[in-house]
Amino acid sequence: MAAISIGNSASRDASSSNNVLPPSAGGELSPELLARYAGPCPRYTSYPTADRFKDLGAARAGSDAGSEPKPWDALQDIQNLSLYVHIPFCRSLCYFCACNKVITQQYGLASSYLDRVLSEAQWYRQKTARAPVTQLHLGGGTPTYLNDGDLTRLVKGLGEIFALSSGDDVEYSVEADPRVLELETLDTLRELGFNRLSMGIQDFNPEVQRAINRICSPKQVRALTEAARERGFGSISYDLIYGLPGQDVASLERTIDTVVGLAPDRIALYHYAHLPHRFKAQRLISSDLIPPPQAKIDMQLAATKRLTEAGYRFLGMDHFARPEDPLSRAAESGNLARNFQGYTLMPADALVGLGASAISYSRDGYWQNHHGQKEYATAIAERGEAIWRGWQMDSDDRERQWLIMELMCHLRLDKREAERRLGAPFAKYFAEDLLRLEPLKADGLLLETPENLVVTDRGRWFLRNIAAAFDRHLHLGASAAQYSRVL
Ligand code: SF4
After folding, report:
1. Using CA atoms, how far apart are residues 365 and 72, in angstroms rounded to an integer?
2. Cβ of residue 34 lying under 6 Å from some atom of ligand 1
3. Per-residue pLDDT tens over the stretch 261-313
């Protein structure tokens, strides 16, 4: 496949400090370039990445004595808060799935899990000082596995503990499985204040759907999309995956054309990482059906071409949005932020994650709950919280976290601002990191001026690789093999 241009930003002066978009130079994306950067790399939903987290048992044990610093101590000082609730239950198994989920038809398990989530929320009641909640996200699993009564019980229960804000200047989002989402549930979600809906589509090709055990027609998705719009959901997002078993360029293009016809506001186009040694469900997929690496590259190029020609703007890190969508506008004005759910408009000072495997953060670090249902339930019963592991950040972590977020969200780093924060010359502090960037600069992924590092249009595809150059922990000896491939 020939190189295509993915540039959709106007040409700007890379040295201008007001420039929030990358220059259009270097927008060509070739199979050779994609292949060069396709290897394993962290996704940087956090820095340091979750595989660095350490058991926080000692910090927890010292919590009464106050002897050890704990990342959740900083919750006392926050001005606003994000909440995430992990609902791990699903009715059937999708074979590609790498999520922390429980496949069950026993609804009682979900109901008692909800009791534990609300009990865990109580543990945070005093710690968050009733800071207003500006974001609430239900993820899974399948959050709409919960019946309408339990969805209401969850949100009302959270409202008794936290200062839930209302109105459309807050982001309340829910991940939905279109195969099992009822119109009545959309009514309930809207009444509870949800204004963003994200649907897992993956692919519309029936053969691919059979291979991943996830059958869902465009008709179902269309009906739900229209119903959600009628009910006032302000943003509808679809998740798509390329590299699935049985997919090829032509079938993916047909899926993209159908998706474009349904006109979601946002699209996430993820790469399927086939790791059957890590994820048991994936052993149900025949490896023979997995497209070879070159075919995946061709799919990514073809899907991107289709989406950008249809008017979607590529934001970076797998995400596309219509130009009029607030995320696109935030990207234009340099106000995009990022959290565990991807790009966001409203980063809060802290995130409290509730439920099994949920991750929380504050300015001082991260903490994650136990994964397993049994461990989670036991911990909540014994201690009221289920914290397993995490990371207390030092000053170097903070600066690198800031730098990585600047590059991923604003596609630019102001070196003078970095120096103000560091109290040291940028080139000296990051001497080794800048050396690692040299090949990426030579490939046109970013430009360096005296004032800035600027990600090019081409470089937006390789934000993970650019960020990795600044990941001190990665270069202290981790094996890259544990991360998913970029392609
Ligand atoms: S992909 Fe979603 S619905 Fe399917 S098993 Fe995984 S979490 Fe459940």
Report:
1. 8
2. no
3. 999 999 999 999 899 999 999 999 999 999 998 898 899 889 999 999 999 99
From atom 6 of ligand 1, which residue's Cα is the shortest distance away?
Answer: 97
Domain map (residue ranges) of the chain: 14-42+395-482, 52-354
Instruction: Give per-residue pLDDT as tens, 46-90.
Output: 999 999 999 987 666 655 545 678 999 999 999 999 999 999 999
176 lines ligand 1 (CB under 6 A): no
Read off the pTM. 0.89
Closest Cα to atom 1, ligand 1: which residue? Answer: 97
Q: In ligand 1, which atom is closest to the CA atom of 92?
A: 5
329 CA from centroid of ligand 1 (Å): 31
- Is residue 5 over pLDDT 50? no
- What number does CATH give the domain 14-42+395-482? 1.10.10.920
Instruction: Provide the CATH number for the domain formed by 52-354 in this structure.
Output: 3.80.30.20
The dihedral of CA 132, 134, 139, 142: what is its sign? Answer: positive
SS3 content of the chain, % helix, strand, coil (to 5): 40, 20, 40
Count of other CB atoms within 10 angstroms of residue 98: 15
Could you tell me the two tokens for 352?
């409290």
Q: Over 90: is that where the pLDDT of 337 sits?
A: no
Backbone angles phi, psi at 176, to 5 degrees: -125, 145
Burial readout 157-189 (b: 16 or more C-beta within 10 A, e: otherwise)? bbeebbebbeeeebbbbbbbbbbebeeebbebb
Cα angle, residue 108 at apex, residues 102 and 110 outer, rounded to 5°: 45
Asked whether residue 369 carries a pLDDT value surpassing 90, the answer given is: yes
